[in-house]
Amino acid sequence: MEMSLKQSTLVLLTVAIAVMSAQVTVTLDEEQKRVDVPHGSSLTLYCSLEGQGRFRIAWFFKCCGNKTIDINATVFNKSTKTSNETSSKTKQNLKEDLPKHTLSSVTYNDSGWYFCNVTIEIPYLKHYESKGAEVIVVHVSPTNFFEEWWLWILVGGSVLVLIVLIIICVLMRRRQHIRELQTPIYGNMRPSPRPGAPADKLKTEQRRSEERYRWSRERRAGSLSRKTAVSDIDPDNSRSGTP
Fold it and tell me: What predicted TM-score, i.e. pTM, was given to this entire model?
């Protein structure tokens, strides 16, 4: 039972973490966009600008005013063979292969415009810059949170109840199996006498002794009544004592 409680707690914590940890993705391309990100969630930026050979990707952040901050820069080497392999992948897999930059636990200070800049260095120098994506960090109230994640909460609760029921069924079957092993049934054994047999025998003996006592009293009373009758018939003999 203790093991089942531990497993149920582990499942509950897993579901809670999956529900609470929201992750938002934004693809920076040639289209301008606006994205609302819940406070405290994780924000992943993908750069979909194409680059061949040796190129460098820089991530920029523009907050209030015209001040632009360089937040990250990475150098990549992408060959023609790699480009041919990625052409056969699905859209989701292609997105996973894109260069990315992740901001964990975003705050209100992370609200602003984000850009990515691609600089091709080999074989010749070339620059590409994406359109900006405006990220606004918003506060999520408990009511809005429940309305957004109620389906995940329902699915997690249903899975938890199902797992608990399966564990209970397995424990009950195992307990029944152990009980059957501890108390085997033998078909060649005669049944034991009834537990009430000695008590019935004792009652029979008491009844017989009572009958014998009653019979002796009746016999004694009968002999006394006969003597009284004889004395009434011959009073002289009874006084003299002569039979």
Answer: 0.47
